[in-house]
Amino acid sequence: MTGRRSPTRDNGQAAVEFALVLPLFVVLIVALFDVTALARDQLLVDLLARNAARRASECSSVEDARQRAHEVIVTADRSDADWHMTFEDGTVTVKVSLEPRTSLVTSSMRWLGGTRRITGVATFVTEFEIGEQ
Question: Taking the C-alpha atoms of 105, 110, 113 and 115 in order, what is their torsion angle to the nearest 10 degrees?
C-alpha cells in the first residue's frame, strides 16, 4: 500500500473557485464595454459640436447657421441629441448633449444618480459678422 493515495475532499474545489470568480469576471467585462461605450459617445458629441460650430461659422445669417448645425446633428442619427447655439463677439458656440448608450446593467442602475448626459462644446470664430436675432 505504498503507492496508493488516500482520498481527499478536493474534488469540487475548482468548480467552487470558478463559481466565485465568474461573477467578478462578468462584471469586469461589462464595465469594460460600458467604459468603451462612454468613450465612444464622448467622442461623438465632441465631433458633432465641432462640426456643427465649424459649419455654422461659415454662414452669413443666423438662420443659415442654425440650419447647417441642425444638418450636422441629424447626420449622427441620434434622436436623443440636444443642441444649443449661441453667437457672441464674432464667435459661434455649439453645445451638444446626448444620453450615453450603455449596457442594461448600468442603465437599470440610473436610479442611483439620475439621468446623466454627455456634453460636448465647441467654439469657432465666424467668417462673417452675424449676431443673435
Answer: 130
